[in-house]
Amino acid sequence: MKKSITPNQIKQNNRSLIYDYIYKNRKVSQQNIAYDLCLSRPTVTTNLTAMENDGLIQKNGLIDTEFVGRKAAAYSIVPDYRISIGIEILKKEVQMVAVNLYGEKISRMTYEIAFEYADSYFKTVCDKILAFTKSLGTTDGQILGIGFAIQGLVTPDQQTIWYGKILSCTGLSITEFSQYLPYPCSFIHDADSAAIAELWASPELTDAFYLSLSRHLGAAIISKGSILTGKHGHNSTIEHIPMQSDGSKCYCGRNGCMETLLSLSSLLAESESLESFFAKVRRRELPALDRWDCFLTNLAKAVNMLHLVYDTDFILGGYLAQYLRKEDIASIHDKIQQMTPFIEAQDFLLISKMPRHNISIGAALPYIQAFLNRSNI
């Protein structure tokens, strides 16, 4: 026998429907809500009043209607009713970002703190996080959680680093951080974090191979709008595919991995920044142009190999993305066409739509998404 829906469930469902509608449309009137959701005006009015009193929504000016007379009051959500914090843990620094319910950056800070697998390090980082959250002027109840993006592979429960060669942090537990913080905490692999940010920026995206071209090479496979994790948790670790038998040593201990050819350390000279390197490239300085062409050739080889396995869009992201131009994409495509047996248009090569701070923002977004997916807003 089917269970009947209770009046309280109907009320909660209406409240969630109205909130979701306001969230998606940004700025709406009572009439818009009632008409599009097929709800009575009294039902809409009651819910709007309750949600406004709870701090979920706010009046936001006036809105034009098709009817003659005064303009209708406009409603929008309160974007910082809840916020989330994303942390990127690197060898020599820690990057922090706070995002609102639209995934928009509220504030960002970078601290020069060298990673150490030591309690003093974890406490120092958490002290900075607490100072950061305090600077936002928020209450603890507003913060949904802290996502720690890290250069390592994470267990399915997001509580432990099971492979962390770059930072020598294999076995690191999230409790090392959470013991000093009053918020839910979790780990996320940095490449997955960047791909999540890409999905957020491109909600129409369903399938793609995301390449994170940053300090270290990383990747994520997006399938049906989700990140594939794989059977053993090391899906998309293309950085360890061998490309040169006599190449440089990778941090995994083997030689000639894709990481040694496509990480930024393989492109940049010691102490050289991306900004200064690309200034030389755009000025057509030969030494920099030669390095750039070599990098693009290796990138074309990698993309061609992966594209032969998975015929989908390839998104070039990471720290490198903001410096890429159309002529760079055209060069990669031309190189691929010389390698592949298939003549194809350039339409499968894309530049990330979220090239800046994508890893730290992506680390924060799962908490935002979980809040929006709740049925009892």
Q: What would the keywords be for this entry?
A:
single chain, 377 residues, alpha/beta, Arc Repressor Mutant, subunit A, Nucleotidyltransferase, domain 5, 3 domains, 5-stranded mixed beta sheet, 12 helices
Structure description:
This protein has 377 residues and is of the alpha/beta class. It has 3 domains: 7-77, Arc Repressor Mutant, subunit A (Orthogonal Bundle); 83-195 and 358-368, Nucleotidyltransferase, domain 5 (2-Layer Sandwich); 205-351, ATPase, nucleotide binding domain (Nucleotidyltransferase, domain 5), CATH 3.30.420.40. The chain has 12 helices and 14 strands. It has helices spanning 7-25, 30-37, 41-53, 119-135, 175-178, 190-201, 259-262, 264-267, 274-282, 286-309, 326-339, 358-372, and strands at residues 57-63, 72-77, 83-89, 94-99, 105-111, 143-150, 153-154, 161-163, 185-189, 208-213, 217-223, 226-227, 314-317, 349-351. The protein has a 5-stranded mixed β-sheet. α6 (190-201) packs across α12 (358-372) and α10 (286-309) packs across α11. It is globular.
Low-confidence spans: pLDDT under 50, at least 5 residues?
none
**Biggest sheet: strands side by side, in what order?**
5-4-3-6-9
> Share of helix among residues?
25-40%
SSE topology string: HHHEEEEEHEEEHEHEEEHHHHEHEH
Approximate shape: globular
Structural class: alpha/beta
**What is the correct CATH architecture of the largest domain?**
2-Layer Sandwich
Here the CATH topology of the largest domain equals: Nucleotidyltransferase, domain 5
For the terminal residues, how far apart are their CA atoms? Answer: 29 Å
Count of the separate structural domains: 3
Radius of gyration: 24 Å
Mean of pLDDT = 94
At the first level of CATH, the class of the largest domain is Alpha Beta
Count of DSSP E strands? Answer: 14
